[in-house]
User: Which sequence fits this backbone?
């Protein structure tokens, strides 16, 4: 069962049991917070039984109590709809891609800049470029090179388009990087998640030129030996895995 479906089932079990306790008079109807805490506990237990990943458990525990707390705030429903839309525009595609948005930091960009080819123009693509911060830092550091970002999430894409509008050597496209050929690029940068890495490695080997470089931030490719592993030395403990094609 997909993780999101398991989460839905766990929540429904929680609500079902909560309604049952009310119908049989096992809990007082005038104690909504206690009911919400009960629902959360049942949903968390159901998630454990369904073998959901550990990080789902606090979410299940807190979900109904948080709903109850939110109703107490008395906010207009448009605020909730607005927040939902905002999250959809940033994280909506993560459901399909299994890659959420988190950003490379400045220290990482500085280390990546030191890895770039010297003394010749080159092309770099950031697969899933997020808000484009890494691309902007690199394109300022290496004005003779050309930088491309491909991002599927609408809001991060829009932000990166606006923020990079003055950089002539940096272009951001909205789309799916699986549909983009990698043959024109000397360096591919990927900060994704463990899920797409095996498929990405197959794509890189099939499409990239001999001698070109894949820089994988944080998520190595199982079964492929990196040419180098670099510790960035930041607080996050970032590691860069360098694969030569
Ligand atoms: C972890 S973020 C990295 C952002 C940026 N590269 C950085 O290092 O700051 C990964 C991004 O990849 C995007 N993404 C995931 N799969 C994608 C795909 N198939 N095509 C385009 N973008 C994708 C996500 O929307 C997310 O913004």
Assistant:
């Amino acid at each position: 069962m997909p993780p999101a479906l398991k989460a839905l089932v766990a929540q429904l079990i929680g609500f079902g049991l909560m309604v049952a306790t009310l119908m049989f008079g096992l809990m007082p109807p005038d104690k909504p917070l206690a009911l919400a805490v009960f629902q959360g506990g049942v949903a968390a237990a159901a998630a454990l039984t369904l073998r959901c990943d550990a990080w789902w458990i606090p979410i299940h525990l807190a979900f109904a109590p948080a709903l109850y707390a939110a109703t107490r705030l008395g906010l207009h429903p448009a605020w909730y709809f607005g927040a939902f839309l905002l999250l959809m525009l940033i994280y909506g595609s993560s459901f399909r891609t299994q890659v959420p948005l988190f950003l490379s930091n400045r220290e990482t960009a500085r280390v990546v800049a030191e890895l770039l080819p010297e003394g010749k123009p080159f092309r770099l693509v950031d697969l899933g470029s997020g808000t484009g911060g890494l691309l902007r830092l690199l394109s300022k550091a290496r004005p003779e090179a050309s930088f491309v970002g491909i991002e599927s999430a609408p809001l991060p894409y829009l932000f990166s388009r606006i923020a990079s509008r003055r950089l002539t050597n940096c272009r951001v496209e909205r789309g799916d990087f699986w549909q983009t050929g990698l043959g024109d690029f000397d360096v591919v940068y990927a900060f994704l998640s463990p899920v797409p890495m095996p498929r990405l490695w197959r794509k890189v080997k099939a499409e990239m030129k001999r001698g070109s470089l894949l820089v994988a931030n944080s998520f190595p490719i199982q079964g492929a030996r990196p040419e180098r592993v670099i510790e960035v030395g930041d607080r996050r403990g970032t590691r860069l895995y360098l694969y030569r094609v």
